[in-house]
Amino acid sequence: MSQHLPGSLQLMTHAYFGFLNGLNDVRSAYEETYFRGLLAAANDNENDPPVALTLTAPSGTTAVASLSVTNTTGQRAQILHTVLDARRVDGAGPSLIPDIAFVPKTLELGPDEEATLSLSLKLDPASYDADAPYAGKLHLTGGSEVPLEVALRILATGGGPPCANTPA
Q1: pLDDT (tens digit, 9 = 90+) per residue, 75-90?
Q2: Cross-strand partners of 119
Q3: What are phi and psi of 156, to 5 degrees?
């Protein structure tokens, strides 16, 4: 027995470390597959076209649009909205926060429930230059695990005079 023990221990040690190396290879392959999947998902999300909403009407009137909203959280959710600043696409003039009215003002949805959110914006000639496109953003939260960013496109049509905020 004493003559065979060192050889047997050497074989067991070799088999043990071979087993550990095999487990390490499996773990490494799993990590690589997992991270490649994460990168692919991130790249897919970056390529998704943004949701855009266009508010267009003659200068001095009200532009109206609607947006369908769905609660995908699996529980009752209150849909919150935040309007961020907008500015002319060409960068001229100051930025402004569009005074958008929402109907309904507050929106609560049950799981998988869908509703329409109506938006209206008075295109005041003192704030919006005629025929100059403006770009802004609207954030909706509460209806999904990921907040929704909506690109706002605002255009007051008509050949009226430029607003006082814009240099000639």
Answers
A1: 888 888 999 999 999 9
A2: 65, 102
A3: -95, 115
- C-alpha span between 16 and 106 (Å, rounded): 64
Q: What is the Cα–Cα distance from 88 to 97, expressed in whole angstroms?
A: 12
| Locus of tokens 């009752």 | 76
Average predicted confidence (pLDDT) for the chain: 85
Which of residues 1 and 3 earns the better pLDDT score? Answer: 3
Three-state secondary structure call for residue 13: helix
Rounded Cα gap, residues 144 and 71, in angstroms: 6
Cβ proximity of 165 and 127 under 8 Å: yes
Which CA distances in Å does 30 have to 33, 37, 144? 5, 11, 30
> Could you write out the DSSP letters of every residue in 114-158?
EEEEEEEEE--TTTS-BT--EEEEEEEESSSSSPEEEEEEEEEES
